[in-house]
Write the structure tokens for this entry.
Amino acid sequence: MKSDHHSRLERASASLTGLSVGDSFGDQFFVSDQIIELRLLHRSPPPPVWFVTDDTIMAQSVVEVLSSSGTIDQDKLAQAFANRYTRDPGRGYGGTAHRILRSIASGTSWQVAASEAFDGMGSMGNGGAMRAGPLGAWFACDLVEVILEQAQRSAAVTHSHPEGQAGAMAVALAAAYAVNHPGRETCPELLAHVQGHLPDGETRSIIRRAMDIPFTRPPGVVAAMLGSGERVLAQDTVPFALWCAARHWSSYPAAIWSTVSGLGDRDTTCAIVGSIVALSAGLPSIPQEWLDSREPIPP
Ligand SMILES: [Mg+2]
């Protein structure tokens, strides 16, 4: 696996492309049950334009900092998050993210802003996980310990709760695994690999549960078993996303259709899956029509 700057950036950008198409696709499914049912039945993609949301915008900052520093410089990352937020706050950020990013933008340190969330418990939301795929791609040529540490640092800027960080570690590990193990139809080993390296906690134990669910199960049923982000938490978002990615390792559109059928936090589950499967299935697996439907990613 190549470790030069150009190759790392190329991989991270591929993951970001998959992430952004998944994010913007999934976000188009916050519509009536009837429309969703019809689209799923006929596999007919939503009409364009598909707008990207906070998932893509924050992941852009991750890639930008990695590209300029080669590592997660947390101060720079916090500033990049705050700058993009200030420029365009209407990208579907969650309530806690609004507070944290506004606070950082007004000069509060990220350490203080992140730790004040949820009465001092810190956020265990899925926001660290949703932007971690490109980071895993960047560090795919490095040791697992490096991936874990960098993912943890990238999440900690906004998510000081260990579950919020574990979600990011899980997605980064999965993206790195996709880079290193492409080209098979399904990848049941993914779940075991990720859970084997995660710190103990709820995210890990639900991924452990996902390992026992056969790929013959319909994704909608599995979403009900594992959660698909209804609570917007790392632990009720990441396990289902990883199961979907593993089930459709070689097909970006199949992965995204399955993921969106789980409903829940659908822009984020599709963003996570897209950021991984773009690497395992390769960029050509993303339909051109889908790329054209997504708005050009803002600077
Ligand atoms: Mg979003």
About this structure: The mean pLDDT is 97. The chain is about 65% helix and 0% strand. The first helix runs from residue 5 to 27. Residues 97 and 158 are 8 Å apart (CA to CA).
